[in-house]
Amino acid sequence: MDPAIDASLVSVESVSDSLSSTGYLPDAAIATIVFLAARLNKPLLVEGPAGVGKTELARSLAAMTGRQLIRLQCYEGVDESKVLYEWNYRKQLLRIQAEQGQNWDQLSGDIFSEEFLLERPVLQAVRSDAPTVLLIDEIDKLDMEAEALLLEVLSEWQVTIPEMGTMRAVTTPLVILTSNDSRELSEALKRRCLYLHLDYPDLEREKAIVLQRVPELPETLAEQIVKVVQSIRELELKKAPSIAETLDWARTLLHLNVTTLDPETLQRTLSVLLKFRSDLSRAEQHLDLGD
Ligand SMILES: Nc1ncnc2c1ncn2[C@@H]1O[C@H](COP(=O)(O)OP(=O)(O)O)[C@@H](O)[C@H]1O
Ligand SMILES: [Mg+2]
C-alpha cells in the first residue's frame, strides 16, 4: 500500500471516518470489512438488494483514497474483449492496407502491439502505475465463462496477451465486486473474496443518510420519512423501497414544500417509493389510506 495515498485505510476507525467524510455513512461491519480487504489485499464481494449502497461504496472508496475508479459494468454477453482487451481491427486493417507487400512476420509483429491494443477495465487496472479502485459491478449478470475469466485475473493479478506476453500488476487494486443476488456465484469466486452482505440500514443510520444526502430537509420530516419507509419494508412486497427510493422520496417532499407528512401527501407521493400496483395497494391498506 502506498502510505501517502492510503492513510485512510490504516485502521477501522480511519476507514469509517474517511468514508463518512465522502458522504458515505458506513456501519461497523462495512468499515471493518473494507479495512480487512485493503489489509489482506483481497477483493471484496458486496451482495444485497438494489439501492443499498453497493456501487456507491466503491465510488466513495476511490474518493477517500484519491485513487482512480475503474469500472466494469457487467451485463449478459460480456466477454474477454470487454473485460480484458481487444485489438483495434479498423486500425490494423488500415495499417495492413498501407503496408501492402511487406513481409507478414514483420507486419503481424507491428499490428499486435501497444499501438493497436484497446485496454478494457481489468487490464487497465492491472497495468496502471498508480493504485486504483476496480469496481466490477453487477457480476451476477455475467455468465459462468466470463466469471471464470475474472477469477484467474483476481488471483494471479496478471494478464497474458499471447502476442505481447504476460503483464503483472505493478500495484494491487482495491477490488469491489457487487452482486444483486440474481444468481449464485461460483464457490471458486467466493473463496477468493471477502464477503459483505449489505442490507437496508436501521432507522438511525437511514435517517443520518437522508440528512447527509438531502441536507435541506428538516430533521423531523426526515424522521417521519424513514419511519414510514421502514414500516413499509416490513410488508410482503414485490420490491421493497431501498435507500435510493427513500432519498427520491425525501427530495420529492422537499420540492412539494411539505413540512410534515399527512395522509393525503402520503397517498399522493407513495408511488415514488413503490413501483408495483400490488405493492402500492398493500402499503395503502397498511398505512390506512383507503378511502
Ligand atoms: N451508507 C450510505 N451513505 C450515504 N449514502 C448512501 C449509503 N448507502 C446508499 N446510499 C445512497 O443510496 C443510493 C443508492 O446507492 P447505490 O450504490 O446506487 O445502490 P446499489 O449499487 O446497491 O444498487 C445512492 O444515492 C447512494 O448515494
Ligand atoms: Mg449499483
Task: Tell me what the structure shows.
There is one protein chain. The chain is of the alpha/beta class. The chain folds into three domains: 6-84 and 121-197, P-loop containing nucleotide triphosphate hydrolases (Rossmann fold); 86-119, no CATH class; 203-286. Helix content is 48%, strand content 14%. The protein contains 14 helices and nine strands. It has helices at 12-21, 28-40, 54-65, 80-83, 89-98, 104-111, 121-127, 144-156, 187-192, 203-213, 219-233, 243-255, 263-269, 277-286, and strands at residues 44-47, 68-73, 85-87, 117-119, 132-137, 158-161, 165-168, 174-179, 194-197. A five-stranded parallel beta sheet has the order 2-5-8-1-9, sandwiched between helices. A hairpin with a 3-residue loop joins strand 6 (158-161) and strand 7 (165-168). Helix 10 crosses helix 11. The longest helix has 15 residues, at 219-233. The protein is elongated and about 80 Å long. Adenosine-5'-diphosphate (ADP) is lined by residues 23-26, 50-56, 178, 209, 212-213, 243-244, 247.
CATH class of the largest domain, please? Alpha Beta
Q: How many alpha or pi helices? A: 14
Largest sheet: number of strands, sense, barrel closure? 5 strands, parallel
Beta-strand residue percentage: 5-15%
Q: List the strand order in the largest sheet.
A: 2-5-8-1-9
How much is the average pLDDT? 93
Q: Kindly, what is the distance between the CA atoms of the first and last residues, rounded to a whole number of angstroms?
A: 61 Å
